[in-house]
Specification:
83 residues; alpha+beta; 4-stranded antiparallel beta sheet; 1 helix; 4 strands; 17% helix; 24% strand
């Protein structure tokens, strides 16, 4: 059975999973993140997590996911309540 890579910094940040039709990136505290580019397209009803499903051929600003990762790290930073 495969393993799911996960990234953390002062707590869990995100994890990635590969499926036949897409790659999913889960943000553990995604519901608390601002998403001005509208990247979150899965798990929108979850209480805390939000996800991005990437499909072959998707077009996107390459910096946008990095911005979400930086915001997720900032959310975990002690003393930072609003990234």
């Amino acid at each position: 059975m495969g393993r799911t890579p996960a990234w953390s910094r002062d707590g869990l940040v995100c994890a990635a999973s590969a499926f036949k039709e897409h790659v999913k990136v889960n943000f553990f505290k995604g519901a608390s993140l601002s998403d001005p580019k509208g990247l979150f397209n899965a798990g929108l009803d979850a209480k805390t997590m939000r996800s991005i499903d990437f499909h072959q051929g998707d077009k996107m600003d390459a910096a946008a996911p990095a911005t979400l990762v930086k915001a997720a790290v900032a959310l975990n930073t002690p003393g930072n309540k609003n990234p």
